[in-house]
Amino acid sequence: MKKIAIKCFTIFLVIMFLCTVISRVADSLTVAKVTAETASAKKIEHIVEAEGMVEKNRELAVLTESDLLVKTVYVGEGEKVEENAVLAEIDVTQLEEVMQGIRNEIKVMELQNQQAKKTEENAQTSKETSQNRAKEDYNRTVQENSAMLQKAQKELEAAKEALNAYQKTTEKQITNKNLQQTQGEGEAKEKSVSSENSQATPTLVAQSQVSEESQLESLQAEIKRAQEAYDSAKTSYEQALREAVRQVEDAENALVSQDASIEVNNISIEEKKGKLEKLEKIRQAEGKITAPVSGVIIQSFLSVGQKTTDTACFTMADISSGMRFVAEICKEDAKYVQVGSKVTLKTAGNSMKDLKVESLEKNEDNENLKVTVLLTSDKISIGDSATMTVINQSELYDTAVPYSAIHSEDDRNYIYVAEQEETILRKEYIARAIEVEILDKNEKYAALSAQAIDLETKIITDSDRYIEAGSRVRLQNP
Amino acid sequence: MSKYGRYIGGAMCLLSAICLFIAGTTYWQKTACYENYVTIINQTGSYEEELCNHIDEKQETLEKDKRMNFTFWGEEADVFISDKDNLRQTKTTLLTIRGSSEYLIPYGKILKKEDTKGCLMGKKTAEKLFGTYRAENLYVKYENQMFQVRGILNEPEDIFVIQKQSTIDAMLNRIIIKRKPHSTVMETVENLCVTYGVGGKALRFDFYRSFSWILELIPGKWSDFPGWKQNTSAAKEEWQLLKGSEKSMSELKFLSHTKKAMGCFACGCVAAVLFMNTIPKKIPNKKSAVSK
């Protein structure tokens, strides 16, 4: 009996042990293993990275005179040059030909000027002569016509006087006749004998009346004629005078055609002399085009065998004015970058810290923001590409958790926390869902509102299988 | 068979049955995460970026209770990724997503939609590339872009998960959507189409998972035989689509786990039956044996 009891008890213990092992195995296989972390106080760092290029801060053009034959070009695009380094060479022989050509042009223009001057002088002389002649004509016209007018006037006056005199005479005669008539009537009675006389008297009276009338008419006609002559003379005088005055005026106002070609030529001469001076300088420099400052050749517009143009031969980046780094960031990152933000630049082999954002400019094409950082370092060159990093730290948040631990559903954010619960067998961890509010976040961490959790709460950040609220979980070390 | 052989055999059958049931439960639990999710496939090709942007805008205008939670995704096999310095390279399966990774891989660390500089990596991929699966916070290079490893996935093991970006050419031809409570698969698909104007066919993985799809065969009236026929042919079409469509790595894992679970349960049942057979029908009575 005792043996059976011991045997049964042993078998029971073995079975219990096996069941325990099996249950533990089953438990380990079925229960999710999770990694948990506690919340910590953190500043949320927003790291903005962007790739960009180093550009010139100041660009300048190297100029020379146009239409010069390029003999040699010594530099290419991207090449660094020192101040006064020879960039290209002009053919001096062709340069001298050009200069001679310009001198000849200047000479031609000067001769043209002389010719024009002479022409102008001649015209002036001619004008003065015309003026004098016109004045002479005027004087002569005035003289002649006023004499004629005076003459006509005199004739008119004479005719009028003649008429007046005749009229006076006639009146006297009439008066005398009347007196005579009165006397004649008395005497006629006495002398009425002679009827012949009385018959002869009306005939004589009639004849004298006719001659008086014709004389009056002739005098009046004479006046009329004299008046007409006077009027005509006056009209002629006025007309002649007017014409003479006009001629004088015309002669005075006659423009001596101002030939502007002299001024134009003078201007051209000045220009050509200026160009000649510049060409002379180039000739004295043996046709060499040099760099005005130390810098990097950005573009070369010269070709050997071609002629220079009136645009730049080279464009250079002026190293002495520094360089700038330009990059673009998206609008989501733009809120973390301000003017004055600290920047770190990294190139292939160098790193520059403590730089600052100089300016921010919106790119209208794609709403990105163009960031400019001024550089003065020797470690980097124009044309190098670099990566800009701007770190923007937020305020200190008391509760920050890994962002990958936050679940989202219907705009609701929640986390799973592992809470210990007493079960029949032992204390177990159960997953609980807690809704949270995100105050700030980056790719790695999220700051939660302080009410959500405390610093001892175990937040499930990773699990090897699907869990949901109420699932049993097992904590494992990360 | 001797008495002891029988006992040993029985014990082993019992043990096997227990182990198989445990294994089956373990595999079944691994498929549980897909119960609440529906996969929709675009048979005509990729979902265009414009459509995705339109959906994002639409999402913001909808009321909270009408919003749906989903992620666009696409998979490409045999892509090469390298470490930061291009010293090591490995081939893996690229999973490009547009949305949160928690709907597609509902365990492990989550790759958020805004996190375009991070990635998730399978354990095996991490070991091939870095020599260790503890590769969090290390950098991976893909198509000249750097991604920081946010988390390591136990399953799928050989995978590389990133967010879709304009600079990365990837096809997003599937959507995984979380079902709202008490809504069926078809209701979810229809809701997606109506709310967002997104088309596609559901891949009925729930056929493997549960028997609730049988209820969908039942028409309005039991006597509606054309309805039965219609529903059955629809189910058949969906089954054929499921069988014929190309499966992603996670989907293949799901099917693998389901089959294993079924297999384990079946084998466990067999083992249990065998165990039952080893139990003697009558416990021999010593007194009666002695009297005989």
The secondary-structure class of chain B comes to alpha+beta
Number of domains of chain A: 4
Calculate the terminal CA-CA distance of chain A, rounded to whole Å.
Answer: 54 Å
Low-confidence stretches of chain B: none
Give the oligomer, counting copies of the same chain as homo and different chains as hetero: heterodimer
Helix content of chain B: 40-55%
Uncertain segments of chain A:
none
Q: Can you tell me about this structure?
A:
The complex is a heterodimer of chains A (478) and B (292). Chain A folds into four domains: 30-47 and 397-476, conserved putative lor/sdh protein from methanococcus maripaludis s2 fold (Beta Barrel), CATH 2.40.420; 49-56 and 320-386, Efflux pump adaptor protein, beta barrel domain (Elongation Factor Tu (Ef-tu), domain 3); 59-91 and 287-316, RNA polymerase II/Efflux pump adaptor protein, barrel-sandwich hybrid domain (OB fold (Dihydrolipoamide Acetyltransferase, E2P), Beta Barrel); 98-253, Helix Hairpins (Orthogonal Bundle), CATH 1.10.287. Chain A is built from five helices and 21 strands. Chain A has helices spanning 2-30, 92-190, 195-253, 261-284, 331-334, and strands at 32-38, 40-56, 59-62, 70-73, 80-81, 86-90, 288-290, 295-300, 314-318, 323-329, 342-346, 351-362, 369-375, 385-402, 407-409, 412-422, 427-436, 438-441, 445-448, 458-463, 472-476. A six-stranded mixed sheet of chain A has the order 15-16-17-21-1-20. Chain A is elongated, with a radius of gyration of 64 Å. Chain B is α+β, with helices and mostly antiparallel strands and 292 residues long. In chain B, 42% of the residues lie in helices and 21% in strands. In chain B, strand 2 (70-83) and strand 3 (89-98) form a beta hairpin. In chain B, helix 1 (3-32) packs antiparallel against helix 7. The relative contact order of chain B is 0.18. At the A-B interface, helix 1, strand 15 and strand 20 of A face helix 1 and strand 6 of B.
